[in-house]
Amino acid sequence: MKNDESRRGRRGGWQVADLPDASDASEWFHGRLPEAWFSAVDVTVDREEVLVVGTLSGADDLSGAEAEGRIGRFRAETKEERIEIAREAQARYQRKVSWGVRIGDTEALFTHVAAPVMTRLRQPERRVLDTLVDAGVARSRSDALAWSVRLVGEHAEEWLEQLRDAMAEVDKLRGEGPVL
């Protein structure tokens, strides 16, 4: 087991203690991806996955089925190279790499991780999930929980961003603190 000094300044518990730092993932992908692929790239990292979503170059005016066709063509034409880039990134960051493409309002994720999350809920919380299932909003408690998390995320994005910023500041201060 690693000592406390090797885990200083890192959020999370034992689940992320041995994961390599991925704070430079966005820069790495911007440097590694072919320039002709995307006009913009968003890289999001969590404990399990690096999600790379690029805006296709030269396809801004496409919509609907035409955009979907262009996305399908991009996916087929770049498959081998995306696999190679993903292998490099997975070795570097020890997380799965998932891909997505955006054209205007159309976005498609090619691959992405659906990570199981264990939780314990008391009866009032289970009743909320069961109501969503019974009403046909979700197929299962698992789907209802995912739906609830997405809903909170949509309506609390500004607050969640402030919380992430505050946690980053705490991590920075923790890293600057004295070593015992």
Task: Compile the SSE list and pairings.
Blueprint: H1 25-32, E1 38-45, E2 49-56, H2 64-93, E3 96-103, E4 106-109, H3 123-134, H4 141-155, H5 157-176
Parallel strand pairs: 2-3
Antiparallel strand pairs: 1-2, 3-4
Low-confidence stretches: 1-10
The portion of residues forming beta strands comes to 15-25%
Task: Compute the number of strand runs.
Answer: 4
**Strands ordered across the widest β-sheet:** 1-2-3-4
- Main sheet characteristics: 4 strands, mixed
Task: Specify the overall morphology.
Answer: globular
Helix and strand pattern: HEEHEEHHH
Q: Tell me the radius of gyration.
A: 20 Å
Mean pLDDT: 85
* Straight-line N-to-C gap: 18 Å
Could you estimate the helical fraction of the residues in percent?
40-55%
Q: Counting H and I runs of at least 4 residues, what is the number of helices?
A: 5
Global structural class: alpha+beta
Describe the structure in your own words:
It is a single chain. The chain has helices at 25-32, 64-93, 123-134, 141-155, 157-176, and strands at 38-45, 49-56, 96-103, 106-109. With 180 residues, the chain is of the alpha+beta class. Helix 3 packs across helix 4 (141-155). Residues 1-10 have low confidence and may be disordered. A 4-stranded mixed β-sheet has the order 1-2-3-4. The protein is 47% helix and 16% strand.
In short:
By secondary structure, the chain is of the alpha+beta class.
Main traits of this protein?
5 helices; four-stranded mixed sheet; 180 residues; globular; 4 strands; 47% helix; single chain; alpha+beta; 16% strand
